[in-house]
Write a structure and sequence with these properties.
alpha+beta, Alpha-Beta Plaits, four-stranded antiparallel beta sheet, 14% strand, binds adenosine-5'-diphosphate, binds magnesium ion
Length: 141
């Protein structure tokens, strides 16, 4: 099990002034921030990041949403990080998310759901590499 995963604070999190609250939640859940930045995605970069969902009916809506404002990619470290972060953020749809999870507390709906989290060690490695160079990760160790 890898000890790193990628979170992205999504545009609804930024627009609703929840960046600080969500980061605080992640730190209180025992995650360490290894690297973090604020970036504005484009149709090309948001589309490439979510390429795995290309055939899904919500793909266009998802890409447009992710371009609304800047987003905050964060590399997080914890034992068994991928599974731990998925538990901390809760189900995709906040209506189905467990009490006390990030999405239950802050998400607007299934699409505008505040935070992305990698779903496997393999995807975490790809997604971390999508936003951060090796130097940025190592420099923050
Ligand atoms: P998760 O982010 O929980 O891993 P998915 O990988 O299934 O969920 O979907 C990626 C993202 O696409 C979701 O976080 C959400 O923003 C959006 N999404 C998923 N399903 C829907 C849907 N039915 N309608 C609108 N947006 C959706
Ligand atoms: Mg996913």
């Amino acid at each position: 099990m890898s000890n790193k995963t990628l979170a992205i604070l999504k545009p609804d999190c930024v627009q609703n002034n929840n960046i600080g609250k969500v980061i605080d939640h992640l730190l209180n859940a025992g995650f360490k921030i290894v690297a973090m930045k604020m970036v504005k995605l484009t149709k090309e970069t948001a589309g490439a990041f979510y390429e795995v969902h290309k055939e899904r009916p919500f793909y266009g809506e998802l890409v447009d949403f992710m371009m609304e404002t800047r987003v905050v990619p964060i590399v997080l470290e914890k034992e068994n990080a991928v599974v731990a972060l998925r538990e901390t953020i809760g189900a995709t749809d906040p209506a189905e998310a467990a009490d006390g999870t990030v999405r239950k507390l802050y998400a607007e709906n299934k699409g505008r759901n505040t935070i992305h989290a990698s779903d496997s060690d393999e995807n975490a490695a790809r997604e971390i590499g999508f936003f951060f160079s090796e130097t940025e990760i190592i420099a923050n160790k």
